[in-house]
Amino acid sequence: MMREGLHPKAHLTKRRNMRAGLLTRTKILVTLEKGEKHAKEVAVAAKVSYSTVIHHLRLLEAEKITRRKGERKPFLWELTGAGQQRLI
């Protein structure tokens, strides 16, 4: 992890990066590193509200860091190859 315990993939290129969002995305990414999960499972594990998790998962999906699996709700979310890479 980078300074202050932030996940390197928590930084977005298309949006403004606020500290609260960076911390939330870090929690989500760390949770998804353990394996694919439904958004509700991510919310419980990361201790973040469901709506916040969905918002950040969609932001990360736009950056091609996460992706949805399945054709029907509830979707499983997983990290893409780019999301799995960690900077050293």
Commentary on this structure:
The protein has 88 residues and is of the alpha+beta class. The chain has one domain: Orthogonal Bundle (Arc Repressor Mutant, subunit A), CATH 1.10.10. The protein is built from four helices and three strands; from the N terminus they run H-E-H-H-E-E-H. A three-stranded antiparallel sheet has the order 1-3-2. Helix 1 packs across helix 2 and helix 2 packs across helix 3. It starts with 18 loop residues before the first helix and ends with a helix. The relative contact order is 0.19. The model has no long low-confidence stretch (mean pLDDT 88).
Q: Would you report the number of β strands?
A: 3
Helix coverage percent of residues? 40-55%
What is the CATH fold-level name? Arc Repressor Mutant, subunit A
* Biggest sheet, spatial arrangement of strands: 1-3-2
Oligomer: single chain
CATH domain class name: Mainly Alpha
- Counting structural domains, the number is 1
Low-pLDDT parts are: none
Looking at the overall shape, the CATH architecture is Orthogonal Bundle
CATH superfamily: Winged helix-like DNA-binding domain superfamily/Winged helix DNA-binding domain
Distance between the termini: 8 Å
Portion in beta strands:
5-15%
Largest sheet geometry: 3 strands, antiparallel
Number of helices: 4
Structural class: alpha+beta
What is the arithmetic mean of pLDDT? 88
H-E order: HEHHEEH
Shape: globular
Q: Whole-number radius of gyration?
A: 12 Å
